[in-house]
Amino acid sequence: MRGPENDLIDGGWAGATPSMARSPRSADAGDPGTGRPKMLIMDVCGAYMRPLGGWFAIAKIVQLMNELGVDETATRSALLRMRRKGLLEAENRPGARGLRLTEQALAALEETDQRIFAPRHPAYLGDGWVLVSLSVPEDERSKRHVLRSQLSWLGFGNLGNGLWMAPRRMRGELEKTVERLGFERFVLMFDAQYAGFAELSSLVGKAWDLAELTGLYAEFVDWCGPVTRRWQDVRHPSGAQAFNDYTLVLYHWRKFPYLDPGLPRDLLPADWAGHRAAELFTDLRDRLEPGAVEYVRKVCAGG
């Protein structure tokens, strides 16, 4: 179930999530810079630059990233990479060299928000499935890898022999992805209802590694424990700690909406950790986001 490398670094915001194999423990809250500074900087730009006018002074970005444990060299390298990808553009203002989110970045963030923040309910068995058959010539096998990676990152499960499946509601995202890549000639797509013969739960167990996903959800729940306790009695979380915690909550959460297809409840384990993880993420976002944004506003307004 491992997804492709983050499009945020090698493309746009859509699908921009850490590799599924990276657990919350991979980037300790005290030293996220040992994880993926390029990923953290995208969280900073998306979560704070956009609601605060779409422009930050470079020095302030460096300061904020330093508070997250990412050094200046890594930050400036990530910013340069984002500029080359068309996500940021230079805009200097009196007394400050700065960067602005491009229209490309804003459009991608809008799309990504729908995936990460919109309420997501499990599919129903009666809704059916979308099946995808891939046929890529050997002389274009690199495109086969791209397609497989994109399908995995959309949450499709692999049945083998170039056949993939997902709940039917994923069809729209599949169509957009294939059209964006220009790979229509390699893909056959079907609406389907499962008719047998194996148990559907057995088929799902083959297509998705639910044990791995369950483990990752459980690690996220464990990671959220001390963060939740830190703020449970605080009426209005604020300051550098709120900024740090909220940014890391985003960083650790945003892979899940891309890797979890939202299978029908009847096909999930009874104690599915994804439900608790989603509750914790929503609660921490509601608690921490206002104070985190206000803290960044003050940092960026300061001299």
TrEMBL record:
Residues 127-203 form the Transcriptional repressor PaaX-like central Cas2-like domain. Residues 208-297 form the Transcriptional repressor PaaX-like C-terminal domain. It holds the Pfam family PaaX_C. It comes from the Bacteria. Residues 1-35 are annotated as: Disordered. InterPro entries: PaaX-like_central, PaaX-like_N, PaaX_C, PaaX_trns_reg, WH-like_DNA-bd_sf. Signal peptide: none annotated. Residues 38-104 form the Transcriptional repressor PaaX-like N-terminal domain. This is PaaX family transcriptional regulator.
